[in-house]
Amino acid sequence: MSVERLTELIQDRRPCVVLTGAGISTESGIPDFRSPTGVWAKYDPQEYATIDAFLADPAKVWEFYGRRLAMLGAAEPNDGHRVLAELEERGWVRAVITQNIDRLHERAGSRALVEVHGSIRTASCLSCGAVATFDEVVELLPVPACPACGRILKPDVVLFGELLPEAAIARATQLATQAGLMLVVGSSLEVYPVAGLPLETLAAGGALAIVNRGATPFHSRASVTIDSAAGETLRALADALPERA
Ligand SMILES: [Zn+2]
Questions:
Q1: What's the CA-to-centroid distance between 121 and ligand 1, angstroms?
Q2: If you measure from the C-alpha of residue 241 to the centroid of ligand 1, how many angstroms do you get, rounded to a whole number?
Q3: Which three-class secondary structure string do you get for the chain?
């Protein structure tokens, strides 16, 4: 029933912009952050994921990120990622905004993609600006130093205490404002400013749909909420929609 309602919404309220969080990647075997078995239950983010921690002891932060890179590099996109790429190709999805840094949307084929928390695609030198690719960083582990000047590289993901990439958040806000429907997938909408994007859509007269395991602070304002796994829900949606928008 809820998938039927979501199918109607996507057809009636175009364009659809999708906002994804950790919940879409758990089906690829990537642990989320905030659940009892999540990343932050094992690693205190204050010690391993803040910009201050990085500046004070970058090698320690790389102990954590090095393991994460190995795990993320080995993960494969799942049906949720694949369906969103397919729906973009079929004209139903205008863009995907993601909080994830894992590159799985890109690898699944999404083209209009806004990575508001950065990505593991590259790491950069804060001294000379040199940029190393994912594969180069993996070669340089456990503590990747800048090939040009020797300073320890910083992963190009947004650490706690850092501002979000300005161009990405500006683009995400624009997409949210123009969306007839914002479809949230696998995000508990707790981390600002990204959690404020649905408000932009609602304020501009758009509708909100949420596919997430568990409630969010925005459930009461959503036109439809589906509490189930992203992959199977999105696959059912893709099957129910006409081939082309
Ligand atoms: Zn350098």
A1: 17
A2: 50
A3: CHHHHHHHHHHHCCCEEEEECHHHCHHHCCCCCCCCCCHHHHCCHHHHCEHHHHHHCHHHHHHHHHHHHHHHHHCCCCHHHHHHHHHHHCCCEEEEEECCCCCHHHHHCCCCEEECCEEEEEEECCCCCCEEEHHHHHHHCCCCECCCCCCECEEEECCECCCCCHHHHHHHHHHHHHCCEEEEECCCCCCCCHHHHHHHHHHCCCEEEEECCCCCCCHHHCCEEECCCHHHHHHHHHHHCCCCC
